[in-house]
């Protein structure tokens, strides 16, 4: 029998220490930073962290510094390929601009959802209202 085992616990994060990672949180935020530490619960410590906000083909970065993330809030995490990072087809815009566009997009989504829910309710369907960020 081969002694090779695949570990699916937080110990598999050992190879990611000191590497640049993208972490997607349950509330939808995307964080990019260097993994400095983790524990058995997959709690993470990221250094030089930025919060990246994507809207359409643009993004904006908000510097966050050192970030401690509770493991249960991590939806996805992956290493960033530093060679391909600069080849992204997305364009960087100032944070104020991306936040304004994100706010407008969110308001439009809320309006659309209200109209849709009203129509479904009038047709006799039960409508569950789920606030943004409570999807998990």
TrEMBL record:
Top-rank taxon: Eukaryota
Key word Cytoplasm present: yes
GO cellular component: Lsm1-7-Pat1 complex; nucleus; P-body; ribonucleoprotein complex
Subcellular location: Cytoplasm; Cytoplasm, P-body
MF GO annotations: chromatin binding; mRNA binding
Biological-process GO terms, alphabetical: deadenylation-dependent decapping of nuclear-transcribed mRNA; mRNA processing; RNA splicing
The keyword Transmembrane helix belongs to this UniProt entry's keyword annotation: no
A Pfam short name: LSM
Keywords, comma-separated and alphabetical: Cytoplasm, mRNA processing, mRNA splicing, Phosphoprotein, Ribonucleoprotein, RNA-binding
Xref: PROSITE patterns: SM
CDD domains noted in UniProt: LSm1
Sm domain sequence ranges: 8-83
Subunit structure: Component of the heptameric LSM1-LSM7 complex that forms a seven-membered ring structure with a donut shape.
Function: Component of the cytoplasmic LSM1-LSM7 complex which is involved in mRNA degradation. Plays a role in the degradation of histone mRNAs, the only eukaryotic mRNAs that are not polyadenylated. Probably also part of an LSm subunits-containing complex involved in the general process of mRNA degradation.
Entry's family note: Belongs to the snRNP Sm proteins family.
Database matches in PANTHER family: LSM1 (PTHR15588), U6 SNRNA-ASSOCIATED SM-LIKE PROTEIN LSM1 (PTHR15588:SF8)
Annotated protein name in UniProt: U6 snRNA-associated Sm-like protein LSm1
Species of the source: Podila verticillata NRRL 6337
């Amino acid at each position: 029998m081969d002694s090779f085992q695949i570990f699916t616990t937080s110990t598999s994060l050992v190879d990611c220490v000191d590497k640049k990672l993208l972490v997607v949180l349950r509330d939808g935020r995307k964080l990019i930073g260097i993994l400095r530490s983790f524990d058995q619960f997959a709690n993470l410590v990221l250094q030089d962290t930025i919060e990246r906000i994507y809207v359409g083909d643009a993004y904006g970065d908000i510097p966050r510094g050192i970030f401690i993330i509770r493991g249960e809030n991590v939806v996805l995490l992956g290493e960033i390929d530093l060679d391909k990072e600069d080849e992204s087809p997305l364009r960087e815009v100032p944070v104020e601009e991306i936040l304004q566009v994100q706010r407008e997009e969110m308001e439009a989504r809320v309006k659309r959802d209200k109209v849709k829910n009203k129509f479904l309710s009038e047709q006799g369907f039960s409508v569950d209202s789920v606030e943004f960020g409570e999807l998990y």
